[in-house]
């Protein structure tokens, strides 16, 4: 569940400082604020570290007085003294004791302009920040919110200062306060003759989602090298766009706090505070990250009904209604099953090379959906089997036997005469199989111990049942194992599964990026990991992109079919080489909104038999095998020598991936290139059209609200021209588009540093 804290302002603290004849507790103002917040159901408070006295002194010291002023020299001397030994006066800070800092989130002075245009102001703001940080560290503060960036021109200076302070404290979480979105950019509309004469009219455009604030964040965290203690405090003050897609980027970031002023709420028909629809949708989505919600101004009486408690109650209600949160709380869902494993990188299994442990099989067996699908597939195959006489089945790679048990169930349901061979190469699991034969299956089955690629099976079978699938379908060497098993499948026999397909999508996730590079060796950044993906954004969108050549959001790489008869086999019926199992795919993705590329998400879908299947494809899994728990997606990381590949809005990403093999191993290599599509030979914006201009609009500060976020100047490549030319003239003469390359990754995993072994 998300935690809720209330923002305590300097005014609140002043009120708590007033002597109260009845209060003999001797508590400090911040302690009183905490007690009151707790009594109102909050988990804690968020308060400024310093007060107006510090602000006034800093301004006096560091902002130059008018030239020629007699005080200038003396002040410069004092400023130099402060720079050499920065120290607070006792009445410039709001807290002084350890227990005041405990469970409180600290706001560093938000007027410090680390990105000021003036270099001296930047310099002195950085000293002041270091001073505040040192003091907060002295008081054991665990989380502090940094002054927000204001000025895109100098965001690099802001980020450099943050990077430098991050290394000075060993444990404190520093959160950058960012407005979620720069919504109030107003286009000066030159489109109509009226405007041409009377001047431009203003029009709010929320159909042109801006990623300006995300870009600022991206610059900051790149300069800070994705520091794991650098997080985000997202300010939800601005009205949000109706399209959620651009906001999904924040789910892929370390969003730890949501700042929600009472002024963001609107009254519903009865006067209670509620949030606009788009903010509601966003909150429902981001709640899966369990952020700390910082409510401010809730005691200002902005809404006629509900009182102060109404704000947190309402956000809690949104949290409960969040599909992601509901799924986590519902037994039987993947989200519930995967609690604690979200975004956790697991080395994929090597079931061919290793012998799995009983506990691993037990985890598999908790998935009712997979086995139900298998039973249906076996039942369907048996039902459709038209030849007379005994039907023979073989369960190849039986583990502890669930596929055997369900095959026997299916046989019973069809009432046909059948016999089942059971093959397993894990000697330990074979003990469990013997026990089950003795206690449950009797002479309906025959157990065979050995590797399906070499074992002798007494007769060829009609139906071969196996489950050797990995998260990417073929990655646990199912194709290679089943090639060997084809020896004992009759020429007209059936394989369950009949086929499986691998899918890929490019993703952004600072969490996964940091996890993968936590261990510094190259191999860890070239390993495809099994991950329950949560804090991610799929960067690609559907549609052809500007070049018209891009595929869907999640694209098919390749597939494998069984039985396959095209491999050249030797006298024992085994393939001479594994060349027929190599694959390569080149996929082109359209990236509608800019983002940082951190890796590829890999999924699979299998046809077991007929229309019965298994799928972890995000858009199809619910239709094919809803709530199946057995497979989390595969994450192919992209390593970055300097920083992850940045993909601008409307760029195109070409991903090439290979499945490669030698005598012993199978592995993947992957690589990506980014392009921008530009109209061939024509300027991007007609020379006759005025440049798109946007101005920022500050949301007026409401009493008690955290100071409204700064908005950031942003110039984007327009999606439509503002000249007389039609949109189609301007953009979509695909034939005359040229792709301009803007970046590439290195080749990942060359030679199979990370591979599946056991051929
Ligand atoms: C993913 S587990 C599935 C186990 C079980 N069928 C289930 O669905 O719960 C794959 C099983 O196949 C076995 N296996 C893998 N390769 C094999 C091979 N070449 N020959 C025989 N068994 C194999 C493994 O030991 C493991 O028990």
TrEMBL record:
S-adenosyl-L-methionine binds at residues 361, 370-371, 424, 451-452. PROSITE patterns: SAM_MT_PRMT. Residues 334-496 form the PRMT5 arginine-N-methyltransferase domain. Residues 499-757 form the PRMT5 oligomerisation domain. It holds the Pfam family PRMT5_TIM. It comes from the Eukaryota. The record marks 364 as: Critical for specifying symmetric addition of methyl groups. One of its GO terms (biological process) is methylation. The active site is at residues 467, 476. GO terms for molecular function: protein-arginine N-methyltransferase activity. Keywords: Methyltransferase, S-adenosyl-L-methionine, Transferase. The keyword S-adenosyl-L-methionine applies. One of its GO terms (cellular component) is cytosol. Residues 41-320 form the PRMT5 TIM barrel domain. Belongs to the class I-like SAM-binding methyltransferase superfamily. PANTHER family: PROTEIN ARGININE N-METHYLTRANSFERASE 5 (PTHR10738). This is Protein arginine N-methyltransferase. It comes from Phanerochaete carnosa (strain HHB-10118-sp) (White-rot fungus). The lineage of its organism: Eukaryota, Fungi, Dikarya, Basidiomycota, Agaricomycotina.
């Amino acid at each position: 569940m998300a935690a809720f804290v209330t923002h305590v302002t300097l005014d609140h603290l002043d009120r708590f400082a007033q002597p109260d004849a009845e209060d003999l507790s001797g508590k400090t103002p911040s302690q009183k604020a905490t007690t009151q917040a707790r009594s109102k159901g909050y988990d804690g408070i968020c308060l400024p570290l310093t007060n107006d006295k510090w602000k006034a002194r800093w301004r006096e010291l560091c902002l130059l007085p008018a030239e020629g002023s007699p005080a200038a020299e003396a002040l410069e001397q004092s400023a130099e003294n402060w720079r050499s030994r920065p120290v607070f006066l006792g009445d410039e800070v709001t807290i002084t004791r350890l227990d005041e800092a405990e469970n409180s989130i600290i706001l560093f002075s938000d007027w410090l302009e680390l990105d000021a245009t003036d270099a001296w102001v930047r310099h002195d703001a950085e000293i002041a920040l270091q001073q505040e940080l040192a003091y907060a560290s002295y008081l054991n503060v665990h989380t502090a919110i940094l002054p927000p960036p204001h000025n895109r021109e100098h965001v690099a200076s802001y980020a450099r200062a943050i990077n430098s302070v991050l290394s000075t404290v060993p444990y404190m979480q520093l959160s950058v306060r960012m407005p979620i979105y720069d919504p109030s950019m107003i286009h000066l509309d030159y489109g109509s003759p009226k405007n041409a004469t009377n001047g431009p009219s203003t029009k709010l455009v929320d159909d042109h989602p801006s990623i300006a604030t995300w870009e600022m964040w991206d610059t900051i965290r790149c300069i800070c090298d994705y520091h794991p203690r650098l997080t985000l405090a997202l300010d939800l003050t601005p009205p949000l766009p109706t399209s959620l897609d651009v906001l999904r980027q924040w789910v892929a970031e370390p969003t730890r706090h949501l700042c929600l002023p009472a002024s963001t709420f609107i009254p519903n028909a009865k006067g209670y505070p509620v949030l606009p629809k788009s903010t509601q949708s966003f909150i429902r989505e981001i709640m899966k990250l369990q952020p700390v919600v910082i409510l401010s101004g809730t005691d200002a009486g902005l809404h006629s009904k509900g009182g102060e408690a109404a704000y947190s109650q309402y956000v809690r209600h949104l949290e409960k209604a969040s599909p992601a949160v509901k799924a986590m709380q519902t037994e039987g869902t993947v989200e519930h099953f995967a609690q604690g494993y979200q975004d956790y990188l697991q080395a994929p299994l090597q079931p061919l090379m290793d012998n799995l442990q009983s506990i691993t099989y037990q985890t598999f067996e908790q998935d009712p959906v997979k086995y139900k699908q298998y039973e249906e597939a076996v039942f369907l195959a048996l039902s459709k089997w038209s030849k007379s006489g005994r039907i023979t089945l073989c369960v190849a790679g039986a583990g502890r036997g669930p596929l055997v048990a369900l095959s026997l169930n299916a046989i019973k349901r069809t009432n046909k005469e059948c016999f089942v061979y059971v093959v397993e190469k894990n000697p330990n699991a074979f003990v469990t199989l013997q026990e089950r034969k003795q206690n449950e299956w009797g002479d309906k089955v025959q157990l065979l111990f050995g590797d399906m690629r070499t074992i002798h099976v007494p007769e060829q079978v009609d139906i071969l049942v196996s489950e050797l699938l990995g998260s990417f379908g073929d990655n646990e060497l199912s194709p290679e194992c089943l090639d060997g098993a084809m020896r004992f499948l009759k020429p007209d026999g059936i394989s369950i599964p009949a086929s499986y397909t691998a899918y890929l999508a490019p993703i952004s996730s600072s969490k996964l990026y940091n996890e993968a590079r936590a261990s510094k060796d190259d191999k860890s950044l070239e390993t495809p990991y099994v991950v329950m993906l949560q804090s991610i954004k799929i960067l690609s969108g559907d549609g052809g992109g500007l070049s018209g050549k891009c595929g869907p959001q999640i694209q098919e790489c390749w597939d494998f079919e069984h039985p396959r008869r095209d491999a050249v086999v030797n006298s024992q019926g085994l393939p001479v080489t594994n060349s027929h199992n190599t694959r390569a795919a080149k996929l082109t993705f359209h990236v509608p909104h800019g983002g940082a590329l951190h890796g590829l998400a890999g999924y699979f879908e299998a046809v077991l038999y007929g229309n019965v299947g298994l799928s972890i494809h995000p858009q199809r899994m619910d239709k094919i095998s809803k709530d199946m728990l057995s497979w989390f997606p595969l994450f192919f990381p992209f390593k970055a020598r300097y920083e992850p590949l940045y993909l601008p809005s409307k760029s195109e990403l070409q991903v090439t991936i290979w499945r490669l093999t030698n005598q012993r191993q199978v592995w993947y290599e992957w690589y990506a290139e980014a392009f921008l599509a530009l109209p061939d030979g024509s300027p991007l914006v007609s020379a006759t059209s005025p440049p798109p201009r946007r101005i920022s609009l500050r949301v007026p500060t409401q009493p008690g609200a955290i100071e409204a976020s700064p908005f950031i100047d942003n110039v984007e490549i327009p999606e439509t021209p503002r000249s007389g030319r039609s949109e189609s003239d301007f953009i979509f003469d695909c034939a005359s588009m040229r792709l301009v390359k803007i970046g590439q990754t290195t080749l990942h995993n060359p030679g199979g540093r990370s591979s599946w072994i056991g051929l």
